[in-house]
Specification:
By secondary structure, this protein is mainly alpha-helical. It is built from nine helices and no strands. It has two domains: 68 residues, no CATH class; 117 residues, no CATH class. The chain starts with a helix and ends with a helix. This is GTR9 protein.
Length: 193
């Protein structure tokens, strides 16, 4: 019944779609992109309740002044912008290699067919753990430290993963170490890059 478990995310998305009209727009979006000061204050009041929002509002006004000459681009404009091609190609290459790497590792580890749904569930849980963990520590450490630490952890995990794959023919339990290392790699990737 793993397919029902995976379809649960669709149910959550449907619930979010049903309740989305009852929530206000993001206050920074209203102020910075739409230029709607009254709507921004109304959204802040609706989201945070009664209170004084002048400090937050002043910060957004300063940000608006700084970004006044900057053009906001949509996704298609970003994809057409030649200056971002190196970053886009790097991200695309990284994402594709992660997908293909996982498939090859599962094949190399010679996992049984009955175990693969649990491995897929473990990958999803690893992604969830990394999202929760990263969102709770990003303000404390900053993006730079998380990026460096994430890349270093990923490099270490890849060395261990290669070692476990080389030894998986000699030691049967190394196959499961490979799967655990994949989960750790996903968590390190989610926390850092």
């Amino acid at each position: 019944m793993w397919n029902l478990l995976l379809s649960f995310s669709g149910l959550v998305a449907l619930i979010q779609l049903l309740f989305l009209p009852f929530f206000p727009e993001s206050p920074p979006y209203l102020l910075l992109q739409k230029g709607d000061k009254a709507g921004c204050l109304k959204a802040m009041k609706q989201l945070w309740g009664e209170g004084n929002y002048h400090a937050e509002f002043d910060d957004m006004m300063k940000e608006k002044a700084v970004t006044k000459g900057t053009k906001i681009m949509n996704v298609l404009e970003v994809l057409k912008e030649p200056s971002v091609y190196p970053q886009l190609s790097t991200m695309l290459l990284l994402l594709l290699s992660l997908q293909l790497c996982g498939l090859k590792i599962f094949q190399t580890a010679n996992l049984q067919e009955s175990v693969i749904p649990y491995v897929s569930l473990g990958v999803a849980i690893s992604e969830l753990i990394s999202i929760i963990f990263c969102s709770s520590i990003i303000d404390r450490f900053g993006r730079r430290i998380l990026l460096w630490g994430g890349y270093l952890l990923m490099a270490l995990i890849l060395v261990l993963l290669e070692t476990s794959l080389l030894l998986s023919d000699q030691f049967h339990w190394m196959r499961y170490c490979s799967v655990i290392l994949i989960f750790l790699f996903i968590i390190a990737y989610g926390i850092g890059p």
